[in-house]
Amino acid sequence: MSPSHAAGRLPFASFLVFALVAPAGACGQQEATPAELEARARAIHESVITIDTHDDIPSDFATAESDPGEREGRQVTLPKMREGGLDVAFFVVYVGQTERTPENYAAARAEAIKKFEAIHRLTDEMYPDEIGFARSPEDVERLHAEGKLAAAIGVENGYSIGTDLSLLEDFHDRGAGYFGLTHIGHNDLADSSMPRDNLGDVEEEHGGVSELGARAIAEANRLGIMVDVSHSSKKTTLDAARLSKAPIIASHSAVRALADSPRNLTDEELLAIQANGGVVQIVAFDGYVKVSPEKEQALRELRENAGFESRAAATPEQREAYRAAREKINERFPGATVSDFVNHIDYAVDLIGIDHVGISSDFDGGGGVIGWRDASETFNVTLELVRRGYSEEDIRKLWGGNLLRVWREVEDVAAEIQGG
Q1: How far apart are the C-alpha atoms of 232 and 182, rounded to whole Å?
Q2: How many Cβ atoms sit within 10 Å of the Cβ of residue 285?
């Protein structure tokens, strides 16, 4: 447990006991009223830099059909970021896993480039006065000081580079801040936490990170790209933590001990990321925060009958129909709340320390919990953290300070490698 955490907040289990049995005015302090807690939370929320490390985008992002400047239509839009006090969004260059052929590799690269260009179109052409592009922690802080929102880029699924490691440098030049090794289904770099039967995946293909994947991690270290292990198998995560010379991240994962999903991290993985110096960005994804077999079955049937292979391949009408159908499922099976989500943050903080935990949503990729359904409700997370007794410094770290620290250390390692 870090000194900051020890001083700023009771351990999760102790806090619950204290809250249940302590009378008003315990420890010589008058219990804060809801209005006082909200006022304190507002002041903290406005003072810290809030970073969400995983927000998905469609293929037509930053066009008239999917305009982030319009309030409605997406969970993360510029107006909603302003309303909720979300300062920085890592927009995601995601390409879904398909059969590994030269033709599919070329198509995956083209789809990735299309999304890189869309994110830059947002910041450079459409709304340059509202949002800037962040290639570094310094850019994030500069844009925040200027009163602008910031967009950064995360790459989801190493499949987008196929077997061509030179594309990592191209992606870095285009602004990639982090690089996710896998998604659903194994690829040439590593094993996924969720093999795909329809692609012929066995339970383990590489036994973790492949030889090519190890070289990809080394190249990411050389370039200064954060290595992301969300969606990776346990062995892949442990391998990446061991192989990387720089701290790694899990850009959008929750805790396996609280919700038994293969997408979530075991205690062993959490501790490995801590030992590596990295950060786990706890994700507010309903099905990973609170597991419901009935709801999962309904969502599985929805995906199977959606009429499109991936979000990238869907038309705007299909995406809207899919979103509406998901909302109906959410109404039938009330899901996880902000409180449930912060339970995962508590667990991770108690296990690996306040310096190794952060926050993410997976908005526009299935993410969201009751109380944090889109970027406009971002303040509710800070309010719940204040209710739990987190200090302002703790909240600053959770909302972005830890991620910025890791990003800087990754850049430092790259400078050492390139200088040596």
Answers
A1: 6
A2: 28
Sketch the domain layout of the chain as residue ranges. Answer: 34-291+336-419, 293-334
The encoded tokens of residue 312 equal 């990238």
Per the CB < 8 A criterion, the answer to whether 52 and 363 are in contact is yes
Residue position matching structure tokens 């190493």: 158
Q: Is 42 helix (H, G, I), strand (E, B) or coil?
A: helix
d(CA 26, CA 17): 13
Q: Find where tokens 């969720």 sit.
A: 194
Fold of 34-291+336-419: TIM Barrel (3.20.20)
Three-state secondary structure call for residue 348: helix
Which stretches of the chain drop beneath a pLDDT of 70? 1-29, 309-312
pLDDT at 335: 85
Cβ neighbours around 141 below 10 Å, total: 15
The three-class DSSP label of residue 278 is: coil
- Enter the tokens of residue 213: 């994947």
Residue 196, Cβ density class (10 Å: 0-12 exposed, 13-18 middle, ≥19 buried): middle
Q: Report pLDDT for 23.
A: 35
Residue 221 CA, chain-centre distance (Å), reads: 20
Instruction: Look at residue 152 and give its three-state secondary structure.
Output: strand
Report angle CA 407, 412, 413 to the nearest 5 degrees. 100
- What angle in degrees, to the nearest 10, is found between the helix axes of 379-387 and 34-47? 120
Collapse the DSSP code of 358 into the 3-class scheme (helix H, G, I; strand E, B; otherwise coil) and give the result. Answer: strand
Distance CA(235)–CA(406), nearest Å, equals 22
E-assigned strand segments in 239-312: 249-253, 279-283
